[in-house]
Specification:
Blueprint lengths: L1 H8 L2 H35 L10 E2 L9 H7 L2 E2 L1 H35 L5 H15 L1
Helix pairs in contact: 2-4
């Protein structure tokens, strides 16, 4: 059983997926910093020093606090400012991933165009394969 698990864990797809998850987590931290430390302060400065992460709507009359952390201790709140910040994180991550994948696709297409034409042997083997498939 241990040998079977080892074979499963070391297959290419599992290792590639693990690497993707680790890189994704690191990328998420970078984007969180970009949004929290760069974009939202600029948005706050443009809007007069507003900090969106502290915006909330109290859902209980017991909530009298002015900060989100304190308000959550007092009762139910709708933290719409925090949701807005997280939504902005998602949009930025999605856009950057789109740009990365778009760049990779362009690079792949350029490499495919540069590929040399198949040799005479490869052409013959391809024809033989196609004829065997058609039978």
């Amino acid at each position: 059983m241990l040998e079977e698990f080892k074979k499963f864990a070391l297959r290419g797809n599992v290792v590639d997926l693990a690497i993707g998850v680790i890189i994704g987590a690191a990328f998420g931290a970078i984007v969180n910093s970009l949004v929290g430390d760069v974009i939202m302060p600029v948005v706050g400065a443009v809007t007069g020093g507003i900090d969106f992460s502290n915006y909330f709507l109290p859902l209980s009359s017991k909530v009298t606090a002015t900060t989100l952390a304190e308000a959550k201790k007092e009762g139910s709140v709708l933290a719409w400012g925090s949701f807005m910040t997280i939504s902005l994180n998602f949009i930025i991550i999605a856009f950057v991933l789109f740009l990365v994948i778009r760049g990779l696709n362009r690079l792949i297409h350029k490499e495919a165009e540069k590929a040399p034409p198949p040799s005479k042997t490869e052409q013959l083997l391809t024809e033989i394969r196609d004829q065997l498939k058609s039978r």
